[in-house]
Amino acid sequence: MQITDMLLTNRNARPGTRITPRGLVIHWTANEGKGANAVANRNYFNKPTTEASAHYIVDDKQIVRCLPETEMGYHVGAKSYKPEALKLLSSYPNNCTIGIEMCVNSDGDFKSMYQRTVELAADILKRYGWGVDRLWRHFDITGKNCPAYFVSDEFARRFTCLTAAQAWGKFKADVQNLLTPNPQPTPKPVDKVSIEINGVHLKADGYLKDGVSMLPVRAVSEALGVEPVYDAATKQVTVNCHDLTESIESGVSYAPARELAEALGLQVEWDGTTKTVKLSKGCVCN
Ligand SMILES: [Zn+2]
């Protein structure tokens, strides 16, 4: 992961106070103006009159480091804090958190910025040996509408088909995915179901549950270029915004073949002789 060091020199934004981080806070810059990218936001933090900062700023092109992780920034200061933050962080959460700002400049690509933020967050969590329970929205600490697309449904829907709570759940799940790669499905051999997509055999298998073929959601969706969304809070899996009746086996989500096929716009056929679920796009012409 490439990080550009542009450490702040403004003492009003970088007091030099040593900290021992206990959590990672996600923000957005709230500036959709053209050119409001990572460097521009860093330069704003560095103006002598600015009394705000964050450790990292991420845009669709790069990650800019403004502060060492062992120094305090001013990103979650407030008159009062939520009880959970006071309990798990401190009475002044700036003194024990690392802050990441996500850029939303209209001339940037949200998806690239998002992916880079997921990678940076996962890298930080890994280095400190933390789980995704150490991820905070600015909102969770002070109640501020930040990052708005993880707090307000109206903003979330500008960027995804999800509610804000689902988008935040997905962010945490995406980070989690980088912390622990998905284990391969291990269905009982007797129940095994093979999968074919447009005539091509899929590596992953499904299994039979009470006569219903259950297919691995991620493996099938990704074979079609669709990313399933996992909400860590509700443990719900959606594909193309279709909620699935999933079942988790060895950490892998499975859904009934017909439901998953419908969510992906596929036809489904069952070959009882070879115990194969055949999924295909478009019309079955014979
Ligand atoms: Zn914020």
Automatic annotation (TrEMBL):
SMART domains: Ami_2. It catalyses: Hydrolyzes the link between N-acetylmuramoyl residues and L-amino acid residues in certain cell-wall glycopeptides. CDD domains: PGRP. One of its GO terms (biological process) is peptidoglycan turnover. It is an enzyme of class 3 (hydrolase). Keywords: Cell wall biogenesis/degradation, Hydrolase. It comes from the Bacteria. Residues 10-148 form the N-acetylmuramoyl-L-alanine amidase domain. InterPro entries: Amidase/PGRP_sf, Amidase_domain, Cu_amine_oxidase-like_N, Mao_N_sf, NAMLAA_amidase_2. Its EC number is 3.5.1.28. The keyword Calcium does not apply. This is N-acetylmuramoyl-L-alanine amidase. It comes from Brevibacillus fulvus.
